[in-house]
Amino acid sequence: MRAKQVVRTKEEHVLYLGDWVFHVGPTFIETPFGTETKDADLHFYGERLTEALEQQADVTPLSNWELYRLEPGKLEEYLQQSEALIISDVEAKCFHLYPSFFDRARREHKIVTFPDRIESIKEWIHGGGGMMMLGGWLSFSGVQSRSGWGRSTLQEALPVNCLLIEDLVESSAGFTAEVVKPDHPIVKGLAWDKFPPIFGYNEVTVKNEEEVIVRVKETGHPLVVAGAYGQGRVFTYMSDPAPHWGINFELWESYNDFWLQAYNWIKGTL
Predict the structure, then answer these.
(1) For residue 107, what pLDDT is reported?
(2) Residue ranges per domain, the chain?
């Protein structure tokens, strides 16, 4: 799979990793000897977030498998062209081991290594880049602790600590938001009294209580936390910007402004 070309129509660029899914089916069982699966669909859950950010910047979305297959050095090239990086519903392991490493037919029987892409991201943030890490089943610790971010070196750059166990907190009744710092540039002026119920989030702990901006009203857990790393900034939103947790959130009247304010904050212009 060839990497996408960054198309620039605006001065600013965002690299958006994750929030893609293959839908396969339906599956029909008509005989004890086999099944029939019909149709498959590739869907980008991040369309609403992309639409919000494209008011100001070009956005290049990459799926988890596209990220995994990027040739060494390509992610770093994307970062150098970007003001912001979004990681949403992506396992840490997707950043490791270029898959051709496992192609035995191409083995040259010599010691090989590749650039550590997570370390490249840390260096990029430390030098002034802005990153958003957003919630989901494969974010932070994730379902069955599969996401692995708490065991990654990026943990150092995050303003929150990932749990080392599954961190999903879910409710069909939904959770609401409580703003802790209403004057913070990320949340100021938004319609928080009309924030719709979200169906889940990732539980984390914070490194500095002063960086908690919004929390979950029902549990007190952090929902929006933002901090600095070197010369760069990192924003974390512990729920999903898209369905399924965020299916109501996408309808919030302040949805676009929330993401634009977060984007401008991590860039250091707000």
Answers:
(1) 62
(2) 13-267
Q: Mean pLDDT, consecutive 10-residue segments, the chain of 270 residues? A: 65 96 83 84 92 97 93 93 97 84 64 86 98 98 96 97 97 98 98 98 97 98 98 98 96 98 96
Supply 140's token pair.
């932070």
Tracing tokens 């994750």 back to the chain, one arrives at 18
CB 157 within 8 A of CB 126: yes
CATH T-level assignment (fold) for domain 13-267: Rossmann fold (3.40.50)
Rg (CA), the chain: 19
Neighbouring-strand partners of residue 132: 86, 235
Residue 28, both tokens: 């029909």
Report the pLDDT value the prediction gives residue 108, as an integer from 0 to 100.
65
Tokens of 77: 């090239």
The H-assigned helical ranges of the chain are 47-53, 64-69, 74-80, 117-126, 255-267
Q: What DSSP line would sit under 165-227, residue for residue?
A: S--EEEEEEEE-EEES-TTSTTTTT--GGGPPPEEEEE-EEES-GGGEEEEETTT--EEEEEE
Q: Rounded to whole angstroms, what are the CA distances from 56 to 11, 129, 256?
A: 9, 17, 11
> CA 222, CA 236: separation in Å to the nearest integer?
9
Q: Which two tokens stand for residue 145?
A: 């602790």
The predicted pLDDT at position 5 comes to 64
